[in-house]
Design a protein that fits this description.
The structure is a homodimer of 395-residue chains. With 395 residues, chain A is of the alpha+beta class. Chain A folds into two domains: 7-27 and 282-388, Aspartate Aminotransferase, domain 1 (Alpha-Beta Complex); 36-280, Type I PLP-dependent aspartate aminotransferase-like (Major domain) (Aspartate Aminotransferase, domain 2, 3-Layer(aba) Sandwich). In chain A, 35% of the residues lie in helices and 17% in strands. In chain A, strand 8 (199-200) and strand 9 (203-204) form a beta hairpin. The interface between A and B is large, with 65 and 67 residues.
Chain lengths: 395, 395
Amino acid sequence: MTAIFSTQAVLNAMKSVLPQGHAFLPLHEPNFSGNEWLYVKECLDTGWVSSVGKFVDRFEDELAQYTKVKRAIAVVNGTAALHVCLLLAGVKADDEVLIPALTFIATANAVSYCGAVPHFLDSEESTLGVDPRKLAGYLEETAEIRPSGCYNRVTGRRIKAMVPMHTFGHAVDLDPLVEVCQRFDITLIEDAAESLGSFYKGRHTGQRGLLSALSFNGNKTITTGGGGAILTNDEELGRQAKHITTTAKVPHRWEFNHDMVGYNYRMPNINAAIGCAQLEQLSGFLAAKRDLAERYRQAFTGIPGIRFFSEPANSRSNYWLNTLLLDEECAGQRDALLEATNDAGIMTRPAWTLMHKLPMFNACPKMDLSVAESLEQRLLNIPSSVMLGAGLDHA
Amino acid sequence: MTAIFSTQAVLNAMKSVLPQGHAFLPLHEPNFSGNEWLYVKECLDTGWVSSVGKFVDRFEDELAQYTKVKRAIAVVNGTAALHVCLLLAGVKADDEVLIPALTFIATANAVSYCGAVPHFLDSEESTLGVDPRKLAGYLEETAEIRPSGCYNRVTGRRIKAMVPMHTFGHAVDLDPLVEVCQRFDITLIEDAAESLGSFYKGRHTGQRGLLSALSFNGNKTITTGGGGAILTNDEELGRQAKHITTTAKVPHRWEFNHDMVGYNYRMPNINAAIGCAQLEQLSGFLAAKRDLAERYRQAFTGIPGIRFFSEPANSRSNYWLNTLLLDEECAGQRDALLEATNDAGIMTRPAWTLMHKLPMFNACPKMDLSVAESLEQRLLNIPSSVMLGAGLDHA
C-alpha cells in the first residue's frame, strides 16, 4: 500500500492547532469556569442535594427555553432519556425501532430495554446520520402500512418508531426524515444526545421528534456529571415523562401510592446545579468549539486523502466531537494514525463499532449498510474540548 | 370509638424529644458537615466529575470494607442496584420473585424491569420484614421443587429469587430465611437500601444475599444526592456487576465494543465524592440516630396504645426511620395523628401502600398478608434526621 499522506503531516497539522505542553489531550474535557462552585455549595449548605430542589426545576425550564420546546425533563443520563422516549412513544415488546448502525450503544440498548428489536439503517456521508432517501427506498421495498401501523414484511413485526442520531453534533437531514416517518406511520424520536447547541435550518435539534433525548455525560458539550433530558412539545407527554421518571408516585401529603410501573430516573438536584452553571456558559462554549473547528479545517486543508468534516448544508453544528474523514483509498492508513496520535499524547478514536456487528445485535434486521461500513473504516475523532478554542483559557 | 391515647399526648412526647424553633421537621434531612465540600471542589477543579474518577473507586472500596463484602459497585440509585442484582441472579422474564408486600415500590419495580412477576409475602411484627416461618409453611403448600428450580404450583411459573427488605433499617430474621431459600432452591438477594449501618447477629446486612442492594438517596442515612450500590461476596458476580452497569464496554485503548446489552448505571464521580465524605461520618451519624431512637423510646413509654418500635432481638439497627406502632384497637386514631403532627410542622408518614394494592401489581400472586395489612394501618414514621440526635449540632 502506498501512503497518500504522511502520518507525520497529519500529526503536525493537529499540533499546529493544539496547545503545547500537555501530557495528554483527551477527546473532550469538561470546563467548570462559571458558577458550578457557587450552585453546588448552595445545595450542600441547604441540604438540597437529592431528588427535589430548585435547580432541577430551573435546569428543566432553561433547557426548554434554550431548545425552544414546551417541556424538558431532567433525568440521570441520556440512556434513561432514550428509554423513556421510546416507552412514551408506545414502543412495545417485539416492535422494531429503526436506528442508525453508526451510533453509540445507548440508542440500541434503549430499544432492548423495551423488549423491542433495533433495525439498523445506513448513513449518508454528508451528515454522518441516517440517509433519508436510501431509507425511503428501503421502506418501499420492505415495509407495509396496515391500519395498526407500519410492518416489516420480512419479520412480520411492527415498525413503531425511528430514532435518528445527530452524529458528533451534526444535524441529520430532518425534513425528509420527517416526511418518511409521516408517509410510513412511524413515530420520530430524535437522539440529540450529542447535539445540544446544534441547529437544523435554524431550529434546535430535538424539536421535531415526538420526544427527544439529550445527554450531559462528562464528555458532552455541557455536563452534569451524569445526566440527560427528555424534550417534547407535547404537554401531556411532558407530564407523563415527569411522572414515569419519578417512580409514578401520585402526589399526596403523606400517602405513598404509585399508579404504574415507574422508574427512578430523576436527576439529583446537585447534578442539576452543575447543569445550570454550565448552561450559563453554553454560548461561550459553542463559540470556542466553532473556533477550534475552523482552525482544524484550515490546518487540514491541503493534506491529500484526508479532510476535516465540516457541518452539513442545513446544520449549524456544535462540533461536539471534531472528525477527520479519510478517503476510501486511505482507509488502510487509519490505524497508523490512531497509534501515532495516541502515542504522541493526542487522543484520537475511530467510530464506534457498528451496532449490527456486536454479538447481541447481529441477528437484528438491517438494510444495506455500505456507507456506514465505509465511514466506520475512515473516521477519526480528534480532541474537541472547549478549552482548546479561542476565548477561553488554554491553561 | 373511644380514643385510647390523646393525640396531644403523642404530640407532646414528640416535642419533648425534638428541637424547638423549626418551621418544619422533615422525616430525614441529610447532614453535610464533613469533607463533602473539599471532595466536590476537587472534582470540579480537576474536571473529574463524571463516570471515571478516583472517588468512585474509593467509595466502592470503602463500602466493601465497611460492609465486609468482597465487592461493592456504585450505581445511580438503589432501584438500579436491585435491577442488576436480579439480572445477575438469573431472574428471567416470567419468573416469580418473592418480595414483601410491605416495601418501597423500588423492590417491585425492579422485578418488573426483568419481565418477572412479584409474588408478595407477609411480614412479622417483630422485625417488620418477611416472616420466615409463615413463608416456610406457605412454600410447603404452594411450591414444588423440580430439577430446574422451585415452581409455583398454582401459576406454573418458576420462583427464582427472594428479596427480603430490612424495613426502616431493622434487620429481617436472616438465618431462617437463608434456610428457607436453601431448602426451596431460591436465590436470596437482600434489599438493604434502608440498612447501611444495620447488623444482623453482628454481621452487616447485605452479606448473606448472593447480591444485595444499598441506596444513598437524599433521605437515607448517608447520601450521594442519588445513588446506590451492589454488594456481593462473589468476585465473578462483582466483575459482571461492574461490566453490566458500565454499558458492557470491552476495555480497549480506542475501540468501542460492547459484548452484551448493558446499562448506563454507573455513579458519577462527583456523587461518589459526596459519598466518601459521608462515609467518613457514618459512625457519628449512627450514634446520633441511636441516641435519638432511645430518647423517643423513653418519651413514648407510658402512653397507652402506642409504642416506639425498637430493634428486633438479632438486629443492631441504624434506626433509619423511627417508627411508632399503634395497638390494633387504636388503628382508627392514626389519621388524626398524621394530621395533627404534620399540621404542627412535624412530618410523619404512614407505611407505603402495600404493593398488592397498587393497580399494576394487584393481579400478582400473594400469600395471606394479614400481618402486613395490620401493620399498614398502625404504623407511623417520625422525624429521624441525624441532626436530631446527640453529638451533632442542632442548628
